[in-house]
Amino acid sequence: MKLLSHSLVPLLAALVLAGCATAPAIDTATLVATPTTFKEGAAQWTQAAPAEARDRGTWWRAFADPALDALVERASQQNTGIAEAAARLAQARALLRSSESDRALQLGAGAGATRQAGAGTANGSTPSTLLNANLNLSYEVDLFGKLARATDAASLDAQARAALLQSTRLLVQADVAQTYLALRALDAERVLVRETLDAYRNTLQLTQSRFRAGDVAELDVVRVQTEVAATESEALALERRRATLEHALAVLVGDSASSFSLGSVDWSTALPVIPAGVPATVLTRRPDVAAAQSSLLAAQARVGVAQAAWFPSLSLTAAGGFASPELGDVFKWSARAWGVGALLSLPLLDGGRREAGVQAAQAQLDGATAQYRGQVLAAFQEVEDQLSALRLLEQQAQAQGRAVASATRATVLSDSRYRNGLVSQLDLLDARRSELSNRRQALNVRSAQYQSTVTLIRALGGGWETPGKASWEPAPLNLAVQQQAEGLR
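User: That's the sequence. What structure does it adopt?
Assistant: Structure tokens below.
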């Protein structure tokens, strides 16, 4: 009896310590404190819990460009990156179902035949046959929540994959919009360069006529020929860049670069205006932040799973069926057989395997915490970057517009004075170079405004529209993590 009581000490100790088999709390002090305002925002921004499931709508329609709408829709259906992310989500959901099945009653059926001989048989050394058919039931009692935590972790993994699918879809949509807008900006620049080339060619014809008449020297002709050739080279460089962008767009929409073509049209895409004081609730729709949060909570749950490996497991089994040496008697009532059992297993020595498992899970939790913190910091940085970029680009566009107007007027005046012999050819060429440079700079600024607008939309999680105010106030970002973490403990 004394020996028996000593043998129960490890089990009793495990039962006493079972209450400690909880996942460690996440220290919210190590996370990012959500600011109440954006430095580049004029209004107060509210704090909110992640809302990655909120409908983002068709944000690209704000650009009022039917060609862009069609391309984004094609990419959403055919992009290979989206298809790959969807497959990973399906895999994560299958793993969740597999984890849930571990907590369910297991039922199996079996049948067999055994031919044996020896002292242990009924007929001595004479061979005999034993036929059997049975049903087996088993169920593992989740004494310390190990199976429940494993299911929680698998569920959070599936949530993270769902958020990553949203993130991939948003990234592809933004890439399509930015590539398309860059291509349209390049088309506008090509038109400008062609117009400049035509002007240089007209000047060359005029200069050659004046040279033949003896009014100008050969040097003037060579100068204009140089400008014509240089501008032709720039036009070819723009064609090369356009081809590269068109091929990239083909891949994004899931098409072959050899068969995809996008014609040149006038650049009439609208530039959406970001409303002042967009609430920070839109930032919480960022799917990458939601994915990092789910991964953090999943890592926390897996620490609990690793800790539960120190405690005993209880499995209940039952079996029933028939066994007979004659096939015709197998299913007779007299051939029935059954059994029930319970198995309580407690690991004692494993060479440090379980401790290593706990340490590995804790390290994974530390890494997930750092990743979540970095994701939130990056989110705020991207929003601040694009808010400041749009503000400064608006001012730059106004200044550049004044420069274009002045350069255009200078070209008109120089051309008139050159035709009347009041200024030299160099003055006219300088005026045209200045006008071309300023017009192209204005196009670059306009293109940068479109690019920054799309990047801001992506940084905000897809648009800035917000639904009607709910009857409850959402919790701050870090508080949401803490509340969900406490639900897993």
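The domain at 17-103+142-311+351-488 is CATH 1.20.1600.10 (Outer membrane efflux proteins (OEP)).
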